[in-house]
Here is the input.
Amino acid sequence: MTVLGPLSHERLGVTDAHNHVWISPVPGADPSSPVLDQFDSIQQELVEYRLAGGASLLDCQPGGCGRDGNRLARLAWASGVNLIACTGFHRKKYYPPDHWLWAASSDQAAQYFISELERGLSETLASATPVRAGFIKIALEADWEDIPQAALEGAAMAAVQTRALVEIHTEKGEVAEDACRYFSDLGVLPSQLVLCHMDKRPDLGLHAELAHFGALLEYDTFFRPKYDPSRNLWPLLEAMAQAGCADSLALATDLAESAMYHAIGGGPGLQSLPTLIKRQLSVRGFPEPAIRQMLGENIARRLAGLT
Ligand SMILES: [Zn+2]
Here is the structure.
């Protein structure tokens, strides 16, 4: 389900599995929260992404912390990139402290998520063509107790009822294994789970185990020097592919800050996925089918409910 309507998963092509293409300022949120609202530059960057071979992108900003479904639809229309929006919740610091969801019951949270998946994102319901969410995004904290429990349970209930994909922000990979247990205990299928930012915890044994469990692992530190990708991300990627786990990986650039945008801050930009990253995968000898899987097919199949 893209912001412009349903599309066969076979037509998603090269797909960035975790990114941000619009974040409105959020009054009352933590002052360090990212803002990404330069419409023309973002549109230009999306066009560059498409011209470089990118076709689709998952936008990971849920409602209440800067998402604007109407703008996402305009960006998709203007750029020709298939954008897939999310419902769910991000880390609390990105919202005003009194955001309604933190006081809601798990049932209320589930109803809200289901409505955004089935009817439309709340900010688009007044429009003639509401924009539907294509997946659920949630955020874990480093400590399990710090995660808003009712919202978490609501997300699991919505995932069971709709079979939507759940993209899970992890704090550097922390408590990823607890999340797998939690969701499968509540009836969510392993193939519905995408564990994000896992390359910040480059533990090959753990990653192979999570892959065999059936979860998809998302890696995105290609342009984050602080995580030393040449010593962590790339050897991990190679080892996972050699272990036969390329069908459990999804790659992304997660440009949550405008400085990472090429057209705004001179950063690597959205088009680095179909250019620099794809080229590096070829240079390092990854087989073409594995490259296609990691750059789109894996996430596309799972969005469609396939394994
Ligand atoms: Zn993100």
Summary: The pocket of zinc ion is lined by residues 18, 20, 60, 254, 256 (CB under 6 Å).
